[in-house]
Amino acid sequence: RKSFDIAVIPGDGIGKEVMPEGLRVIDAVAERFSLDLAYRHIDWASCDYYDETGSMMPPDWRPQIGECDALYFGAVGWPARVPDHVSLWGSLLKFRRDFDQYINLRPVRLFEGVPCPLANRKPGDIDFFVVRENTEGEYTALGGRMFEGTERELVIQESVFTRTGTDRVLRYAFELAQSRPRKHLTVATKSNGIAVSMPYWDERADLMAQQYPGITVDRQHIDILTARFVLQPTRFDVVVASNLFGDILSDLGPACAGTIGLAPSANLNPDRLFPSLFEPVHGSAPDIYGKGIANPVAMIWSGALMLDFLGRDPTCPDGERYRRAHDAILSAIETVLAKGPRTPDLGGAARTEDLGKAIAELVKTIDVA
Ligand code: NAD
Ligand code: IPM
Ligand code: MN
């Protein structure tokens, strides 16, 4: 098989600080497990590029990265210079849609050694996945303003829920729940207040549940669901949600498990027709950019998810090596979180590169099954 081509897109702010640590770790496992990876370094999809050119990406962005096997993405956004909806609809949200990355898979886990803001919680108590719909729902640019500047000013923002879009994310979540020992699925909804889309979401979920009699389905309104993330996190195994609800749950979950600096995500086109995108859940963090204190674990863990996904490509004869590389990175992350060094969000005083180097060193020798 040819090597895997990976577009490396650091973006803005701490995206530029955590990306080198992600690559440091990937390079180390690639060497150990003889992975065949080729990077394509991309200096657009950033607000710097926007300042220079007036757009987030060059006109030929798609031929430049569309044939890659994966996109490894830092973070985009610098709201003081470019309005967020301009920078994000001009980059990340465009990738998710144009590459039909309809699953946004976001693991949430409490690790040993990470201070948990919830009382009396230990590792194992928080261990679930948020499966977020990633191409439609509440995220649209459909709508408009009328009577601007008058008392009658009116703003309409539409949502879109297609049967295909709803069913495919539900299907993925049911299958994921099916593969887990607890076989428990929470369906995030809000069918009391949002009277059209959410009853539809429930209806599709109920219909699919009939095909999975072994799965316990727990339908919860999003408001009480957020309360239970805090009060009863052991209740969750797989949580499936629309685009907006999934966005909110995937910051709240990691915050309950200590810091959003650990949270990775996989924006998947499971059919592999287009590249999938792997990125931290967090953003460009302008408040800490330049200080060298961002936690690189979310970026590094996202890299592990990328290798795992690439290794499952049916055309990859040595997929096992990619899975072992993933496992080595995860074990190294666990070790570093338990023993340090720790960045300030973990209660320490270490720097971004201290964690990156410690994890990169460990993956070279750490035991993997
Ligand atoms: P943010 O995630 O960038 O930051 C929120 C808070 O978490 C900040 O206090 C920040 O310092 C902290 N934080 C985030 N990542 C951290 C890390 N790795 N280590 C330690 N602390 C960390 O969210 P925001 O402030 O709402 O957004 C800033 C910009 O990033 C905006 O332009 C936003 O649109 C963009 N954004 C981009 C993405 C993305 O590219 N995927 C995701 C979220 C936000
Ligand atoms: C995320 C981010 C993005 C989202 C923003 C930056 C558009 O918050 O990946 O969670 O809302 O999806
Ligand atoms: Mn978010």
Automatic annotation (TrEMBL):
* Keyword line: Manganese, Metal-binding, NAD, Oxidoreductase
Record PROSITE patterns? IDH_IMDH (PS00470)
Family stated for the protein in its record: Belongs to the isocitrate and isopropylmalate dehydrogenases family.
Keyword hit for Cell inner membrane: no
The answer to keyword Electron transport applying to this record is no
Q: Which cofactor does it need?
A: Mg(2+); Mn(2+)
Gene Ontology molecular-function annotations = D-malate dehydrogenase (decarboxylating) (NAD+) activity; magnesium ion binding; NAD binding
Q: Pfam families from the entry?
A: Iso_dh
Q: Which residue numbers delimit the Isopropylmalate dehydrogenase-like domain?
A: 5-359
Which reaction is this enzyme known to catalyze?
(R)-malate + NAD(+) = pyruvate + CO2 + NADH
What domain of life?
Bacteria
Q: What is this protein called?
A: D-malate dehydrogenase (decarboxylating)
Enzyme Commission code(s) on record: 1.1.1.83
